[in-house]
Design brief:
Distance between the termini: 54 Å
Strand order of the largest sheet: 2-1-11-10-12-13-14-15-16
Strand content: 15-25%
Largest sheet: 9 strands, mixed
Number of strands: 26
Radius of gyration: 24 Å
Oligomer: single chain
Shape: globular
Number of helices: 16
Length: 526
Amino acid sequence: MLTLELLRVPAAICPDRTAIIFENSSLTFAQLNERSSKLAESLLQQGIKPKDRVAMLQVNTPEVVETYFACAKIGAAFVPVDFRARPGEVAFRLQDSGVKALILGERYLPMVSSLRDVAPTVEKYISLVAAANPDLVDYKTLIENGRAENFQPYQGEDTDMTVLMYTSGTTGTPKGVMLSHNSFTEYSLNNVDPAGPDQEESNILTVPLYHIAGMQAMMAAVWGGRTLVLQRQFEPVEWMKLVQQHRVDRAMMVPTMLQMLMNHPDFDKYNLSSLKVITYGAAPMPLEVIERAISRFPNAGFINAFGQTESGATITMLGVDDHKLTGSPEEVALKIKRLSSAGRVLQGVHIKIIDPDGKEQPVGENGEIVVKTERAMNGYLGQEAATAETIDPEGYLHTGDAGFLDEGGYLFISGRLKDTIKRAGEFVPPVEVEETLMAHPAIADAAIIGVPDDTWGETVRAIVVLKRGQSVTLEELREFGRQRLATYKLPESLVIVEELPRNPMGKVLKTELREKFGQPNTPQQA
């Protein structure tokens, strides 16, 4: 199924229901469908054809949603650009993808003059605000002049590329991940109830739409006929105000967002009791944080969704029932243990854990997580060798993540393969050590890296952020960890920092930590 149906169906079933709430404006499903069709027809008039690429540089706004569906309706590929990217990073994405049109928010208009010289394929620069520059096409005019009644939607294959999404590039040049219509529709059809005429829900979305988690959440909400409450960028107080004002039912968050909310001094001033489901993912969730969240959001069920850009959408899920810490003492203990997992595979997904030789690992044994699913990417744009390294001849996507499956089929993520530590031949799972450090009462945040060692090959270095007014020594951390970790997993050096470097989705940038603190000499405490 093509993704344009994700909007067409709810527009037919509940046309007058609010589809998007954004600041002081709103759109119904019928209006969103009509506006995207008008934009699609105008883009065709501007020379945008099927298979062309249209880039968007803007924070979360209704125009991003409209533009995506307009692209889907004409068979063009949507290229969402990280709105935090610097001009050089934007230029690379435009050059690499061969973008034909670029739609920009107001704060990005000063980039246009510099981009013209380095992005020769861009024929149209479209401004979301009225601009005096006659070389810019006005977005509002495109909407006004589009004739939805004359528009005939694209008739293509569900394997056609609909989104070209770039990896973060924290460990090298970003790669364009080619995602098909099926990457999104297969997930929605199998995991989200379609829009109904009676059941109404709302979904607050603050995860950026240039990220796979934001794009998947947006499409799932539209297919489900849910009202999207859009926030430009995450800000805790505004988020709480929006949830309270609109009685929001669902939220998609990353762990750092959840922590910021619960740590905010005004958290208890807002009524967040309407929240029924909080989905989290995109970065590891410390056990202490999710246990605290279960207590602080007593009316909400929690879902942990795991996937990556290359997998197209969520591939495993730890469901609401898994987060309910009820039952016998043994059942509760098992549930608490599995709170650190990414849950079980979803329909249409097969997972294996393999060793470096490709042999499948038994239950409980670490290895690389490989995935086979129709949702997986078509490949990396223009990079056949990288695609062949990532998708093997049997069709398995090599995720680059390490982990293991327990006896119940729950997937535990140990960390990125490139981040794993081998001490005297023993594998040290980063996530397990980091969760242990986070449980220490003095630690606010933690990461581990491996440092070269002549005797052991690598040793474990802890890099931690302290809670206000707290202190800790290496020996105290080692003693704390002895009750939970094997001796070879205990940190053997310690660095104290003000904060850990993270990307916009909350993932710790281990590359930066290794560059700064990865030398084998005695670390300095900051």
